[in-house]
Backbone:
């Protein structure tokens, strides 16, 4: 079980570090034009997109560093819980935009983050 948690937490950390970093670096307009999966940014201000990216990067760091350094490992499930809340918001946004195909991926990330939070 511990190995599975480390693997899932590592994969989530890599995914959210990459995705959150992209939201911090790339402009909102460029994100919207890059992919049909990123059209959700049209519903949010540029500052909100940057804030979501910052929260994702912080959660990615919070999934790995506390447990790896054995400093306040209680932060790992809290970081995972934060990702659950972010992904719950993503699912609500997908429902509101009628993007049900893309919502499946969001639900997978939500379930994986929930698994880490529970474990």
Residues:
């Amino acid at each position: 079980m511990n190995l599975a948690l480390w693997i899932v937490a590592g994969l989530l950390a890599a995914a959210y570090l990459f995705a959150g970093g992209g939201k911090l670096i790339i402009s909102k307009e460029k994100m919207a034009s890059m992919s049909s999966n990123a059209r959700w940014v049209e519903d949010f201000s540029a500052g909100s997109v940057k804030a979501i990216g910052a929260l994702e990067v912080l959660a990615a760091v919070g999934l790995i560093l506390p447990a790896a350094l054995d400093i306040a490992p209680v932060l790992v499930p809290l970081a995972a819980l934060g990702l659950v809340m972010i992904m719950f918001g993503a699912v609500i946004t997908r429902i509101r935009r009628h993007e049900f195909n893309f919502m499946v991926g969001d639900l997978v990330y939500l379930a994986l983050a929930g698994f880490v939070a529970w474990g």
